[in-house]
Input
Amino acid sequence: MALPLVGYVVANLIWHVRPLVFFHRIPLLSKLAMTTGLLLGIGVIAASPERPSFDINAIVADGGAWDVTWRRFLTDIANPGLYRYDALWSMLSSQDLSGSWMIYGVAVSAALLASAIATLVMLRGEEFLIGVFAMMYEILLMQALAMYVIMLLAYTLCTFNFWTALLALMILQYYRYVQRPAGH
Output
């Protein structure tokens, strides 16, 4: 669970570099880049033949692909560097493209195109060059974080099993709606 936190802290340190502050002052630029990165992360996981199954029965099965040690999980399953774009590209460029992959391809293309056009329209000069690098950085960071968090959720579900996760969700909902005393 520390990897997304470390990634978030490093991203905040990088985003507070003086030339990059303007990129987050324009919410459209950062939100489009974040959306593109999230979509890419989901697609890379879905298309990868190496990843374990996300079927609920496969996740909670004893001795299944998700029933591994932390070290193996972090090095062999949840490492975003192990997943490549090759499988995603072959899925999107196949002759018999299914409807869901077609919708996904259009969504990713639209988000990436909108992000690029927004950067082109809203930034000029030196800010444009920095904005392009900031956009690429945010897309890659969000892709890696999306991949890691999705796999961490599946691993947590395997480790704590379905009923423990359901109990934790009920406790969370209880504390969410508890009446808190008024402030001073």
User: Anything to note?
Assistant: Residues 2-177 form one domain. The radius of gyration is 20 Å. Residues 43 and 104 are 8 Å apart (CA to CA). The mean pLDDT is 82.
